[in-house]
Structure formats: C-alpha cells, structure tokens
C-alpha cells in the first residue's frame, strides 16, 4: 500500500506543475516590474571639449532612442549659430561656417520613450590661425574677356600647402574645356585651357578657401567666386618679318595693319617670339626708358601685351618706318588711325602671337601663361 501512495503523490505533483506552467507560459511575481526604457543617447560632433576645430568642418548633434525638443549652438557673444533640424527630429546641423578662434556652446534637450529627458550640453573651440591670408581672383564678375585669358588667384602670403588649396578650386564651363591649374610661384596659381577658350564660353569659378590650411599656421580668409564670359575669337598674328600685324576674328581676317617691330640688331630691343595676351588698354600711356634716352613720352591707343614693356601703340614719330623697317624699342608701332582702330577692336585676354624673331621671350614676365607648353604647364600643378 505504501508504494501506491507514493505513486499517487508523484502524479499529483506532476499535475500541479503542469497546471502552473499552462497560464501565459511563465510565472510572475506580484513584486516584479517592467524594466525602464533606456534614455536618449546624444552624440556631439565635434566632441565635447574638442579644440583646434576647423570652422568649416561638419558640426552636428544627433540623438538615438529619441528626438530633440530644442537645440541651440551659441558663440562667445551668445549669438545663435544658424542650423537645421532633420524632419525626424534626430539630427541638427549648422548651416553656416563658424569663426576662427572661437568657443561654441551647446544647449537644449532630447526626449525619449516614457518622456525621459536628457540635456544637450558641451562646447568646443575652433582653430586660431597664426595668420589669415587674403586672396584675390581675376577675371572679376560680369566681364567679357578674350580667348587666352587665364583665371588667376593671387595670395597675400606664400602658400606652403599648395595641394590643399588646389583641391578647393572649381572651374565650371558652359561647354567641355580641358584645362589645368599651375603654380607660377608661391603666391599665384592660374588656370588656363589646353587650347584657347571656345568663343562665347560661360565660365564660373569657385575658390572654397575659407578654412583651408595653407601650412605654417596660415589659413584662408574667405571664399572667392567669379563668373565671366569669353568673347569672340580674336587673334593677332604678328610676324616681325612681314612688317604688319594681321587681326584674325572667328577664323577669318578681320584687319591688317602696317607695323614696325623691335630692332633686330639689339637683343635688348627685339620684339621677342611668344604668345602674349592683351593685359590692359589706355587711350594715352606715358612711357619711360631713360637708358635709351626718353622719359614721360605720351603714346596714344596703347594696348599692353607684356609686363616686360611691350605694347601695340601709335607712334607717328616713327611713321616713315611703319610697314617698312623694324626700328622700335620692342613695341609694335602703328599709325595713329590704325592704332585707334585696333585699340577699339581688342579685348583683355586676346592672344598676340609674335613669330619670326631671332629670340624667344623667357617665361617670367606676366602674363606668360601661354609662353609655356601644355606639358610644362601641367607639370606645375600641385596635384
């Protein structure tokens, strides 16, 4: 009988155990509670306490497991930095560049499940340059230039990190144009096309220089932009042996003028071979060369083509030689009427191709961009 009672007791225990496991699949204790949801997690970029932050670097605050109720980033003067919050309320980003050498402070709050709230707080400091370097760009906005015009950016101080600067430069054209940047020296970088610009090309340039580290503690002062137009295709063909200049426009002869070039017997007074460009135009130019006996000489309809001293200009005093002999001091002399007509036809940036001389112009007098071969030009890029 004892064995039967033991068996019945075991069966009853199993039935009670099965009955206990059949409700909801688990047992609960009246004292147990659901775990609290995790609070929102805020991430700052740059991190709290960061220093030497580039003022153009991405600046944002984001939250996981929640959304922002308010986000404010202020500078040292308490002014709010402009920014935008994403539609889902989880990320806020600045929409303007910051300043150099300033401390910025976060404030606000993020809310999560169960109305759990956490503060947004922290600060960071931007880099303080040893020097902020100014730059200028040409051509300027809204001008029309000739087909040989280069884009030129000049800096107030030497640039050490040329590759970083060059990566910040953008050229957009209304039609495909092959070109390249080249560093003419530590304070100037130019862009020119492989061949002359196509006529009537629209050009847009952006130099994103603010925040660029030039090296040695120097940074860019400001971004630069310009938009300009290339005009008709005009080229001056200047063969010194022909005693003329021929003006070609859009592939056809536009004008031809008798001329007198530099003296062939004196290398200092040659009109040297090379592709010059029209740099400036003045109705009257005062010319000086005391070594050759003249100062304060006024010449009309002066078109500068080199900083070495070459012009195309009127010289009625040399009329007897114009079209016959080369007797100038290196300039291209025309009669008054022809010089005036050419003056009014010329655009800044037009090429002037001098040939037939016994010497070449060395590539060191501005503007000498077209004195260099394409291979030489590309070798002067920092990238």
Automatic annotation (TrEMBL):
Boundaries of every L,D-TPase catalytic domain copy: 234-355
Location of region: Disordered: 25-53
Domain of life: Bacteria
Family annotation (PANTHER family): L,D-TRANSPEPTIDASE, L,D-TRANSPEPTIDASE YCIB-RELATED
Identification of the protein by name: Lipoprotein-anchoring transpeptidase ErfK/SrfK
Gene3D superfamilies: 2.60.40.3710, 2.60.40.3780, L,D-transpeptidase catalytic domain-like (2.40.440.10)
The entry's keywords: Acyltransferase, Cell shape, Cell wall biogenesis/degradation, Lipoprotein, Peptidoglycan synthesis, Transferase
Source organism of this protein record: Halopolyspora algeriensis
PROSITE patterns according to UniProt: LD_TPASE, PROKAR_LIPOPROTEIN
GO BP annotation list: cell wall organization; peptidoglycan-protein cross-linking; regulation of cell shape
Active site, per annotation: 313, 331
Pathway where it operates: Glycan biosynthesis; Cell wall biogenesis; peptidoglycan biosynthesis
GO CC list: extracellular region
One of the record's GO molecular function terms: peptidoglycan L,D-transpeptidase activity
Signal peptide: none
Pfam families in alphabetical order: Big_10 (PF17964), YkuD (PF03734)
């Amino acid at each position: 009988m004892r064995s039967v009672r033991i068996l019945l007791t075991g069966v009853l225990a199993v039935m009670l155990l099965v009955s206990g496991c059949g409700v909801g699949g688990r047992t609960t204790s009246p004292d147990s509670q659901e775990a609290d949801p995790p609070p929102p997690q805020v991430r700052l970029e740059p991190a709290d306490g960061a220093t030497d932050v580039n003022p153009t670097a991405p600046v944002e605050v984001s939250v996981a497991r929640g959304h922002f109720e308010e986000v404010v980033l202020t500078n040292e003067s308490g002014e709010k930095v402009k920014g935008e919050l994403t539609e889902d309320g989880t990320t806020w980003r600045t929409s303007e560049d910051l300043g150099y050498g300033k401390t910025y402070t976060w404030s606000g709050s993020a809310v999560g499940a169960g109305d759990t709230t956490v503060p947004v707080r922290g600060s960071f400091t931007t880099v303080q340059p040893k020097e902020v370097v100014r730059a200028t760009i040409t051509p300027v906005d809204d001008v029309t230039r000739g087909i040989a015009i280069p884009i030129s950016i000049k800096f107030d101080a030497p640039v050490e990190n040329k590759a970083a600067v060059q990566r910040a430069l953008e050229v957009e054209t209304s039609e495909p144009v092959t070109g390249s940047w080249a560093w003419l020296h530590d304070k100037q970088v130019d862009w020119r096309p492989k061949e002359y610009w196509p006529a009537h090309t629209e050009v847009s340039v952006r130099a994103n220089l603010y925040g660029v580290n030039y090296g040695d503690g120097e940074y860019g002062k400001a971004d630069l932009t310009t938009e300009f137009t290339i005009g008709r295709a005009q080229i001056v063909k200047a063969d010194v042996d022909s005693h003329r200049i021929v003006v070609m426009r859009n592939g056809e002869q536009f004008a031809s003028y008798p001329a007198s070039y530099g003296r062939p017997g004196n290398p200092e007074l040659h009109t040297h071979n090379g592709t010059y460009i029209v740099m400036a135009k003045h109705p009257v130019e005062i010319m000086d060369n005391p070594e050759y006996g003249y100062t304060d000489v006024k010449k009309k309809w002066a078109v500068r083509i080199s900083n070495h001293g070459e012009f195309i200009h009127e010289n009625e005093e040399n009329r007897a030689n114009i079209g016959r002999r080369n007797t100038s001091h290196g300039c291209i002399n025309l009669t008054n009427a022809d010089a005036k007509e050419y003056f009014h036809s010329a655009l800044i940036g037009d090429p002037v191709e001098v040939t037939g001389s016994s010497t070449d112009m060395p590539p060191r007098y501005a503007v000498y961009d077209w004195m260099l071969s394409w291979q030489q030009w590309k070798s002067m890029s920092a990238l």
